[in-house]
Amino acid sequence: MINSSLSSSFIYHMSIYLLPKTIVESLDKQRRTFFWQGGGTKRKYHLVRWGVICLSKKKGGLEVKDIFKKNVSLLCKLWWRLENEEGLWQQLIKNKYLRNDIISTVKHRLDDSPIWASLLKIRQVYLRGRQVQTKNGKNTLFWEDCWINEKPICKEHPVLFDLCNDKLISVHKVLQNNGHLSFSRWLPPLLFEEWMALLEKVFSYNFENQEDIVLWKWCRKKTFTTKSVYDHLSEEGNTNTFSHIWKTRIPYKIKIFTWLLEKGVVLTKDNMVKRKWTGDPSCVFCDQVETINHLFFQCPVAKCVWALVGQCIGATDIPRNNTQYKLWIDKWLPDGQKIHHFGFAAICWAIWKCRNKAVFDAKRIRHPAEILLHSCAFMKYWAGLYSSDFQGKLLDGIKVVLACAHKVLAQQAGAADARMLLPPAEDQPEEEE
What we know:
This protein is an all-alpha fold.
């Protein structure tokens, strides 16, 4: 909803000019509020930084579009079209702003239009991804573009570059001047020899009488895409991609819940205390402090649930946290990698729902096996997201877990009935002294 509606309604404006920071912050505030609160008016905690949420799924985020990065990506496309396409607006721009300059050297003027001023602000991003295949050298910077080697000349000959007064000169003008450039002082013998060797290399280059070809080095096909710019601007991210969550076929709401769970930010009572909550931090099922590991793995109720699951798959131990669960399920169910996170999500979601009912509605479970019944109901419903062939195998496994849970509940009911049928214990007469 955020990407398809809230982030797309202003795409047209972002493709024309650079949005002011205040506008970007205001739009992000609206999107953040909608993400955490939905359509409600009640304020809710923002559990994860917005910058993390805007990262791609490959980098540990939720792939909500970053407005500023999307804005820059769309404006870079105008630079690409200006260099590689012909049209009325390209002719106007070239006649007004690029008559005596190339895009690498043109400078900001007071009479620039707002759109052109916006393009100049993001020009350096475009130039970082731009690659020139030099033909006549008119659109190639002599010092700063990579045209002879993989590195620009200014990096290979930094002293000459610092001394040169014509730092933004094009290759074509160097050829027109026969290599006569202006330096801030006379070159000593060593630098002069270095400069002559460089000129010899320049004049031995195979130039052609046609326009330079502009390529895009951030894309394999060497053609510009806004996605390549956006990905390059979003290079920083978490090494944990949570790919097992996104590959599992469960409702998206549950995927986000397990993503929050694995990041350790689900609103258990210890996390509430960190946000200055003043309530009782004890677990609703026992008297220990409620943490994520405690509620979902180490609480007596959770231990019983995982023990029942372990009984179904033949395990002799139970996991104590999420990391141990991944090792545990790989060990005892090596052929079921497709459902490892599927079952984990159902059980944790069932525990969370039962915990919330106990906290907010005072509805407590009578036996931990009831949580297993809830999780089986979720898995049976989510099984419809899989193909018919795999769905049958999945339902067979759910039946095994259901049978185990019903057996435990039946044993508990039988024990309770037996206690009710026992005669009351008679008082023993006191021994006479």
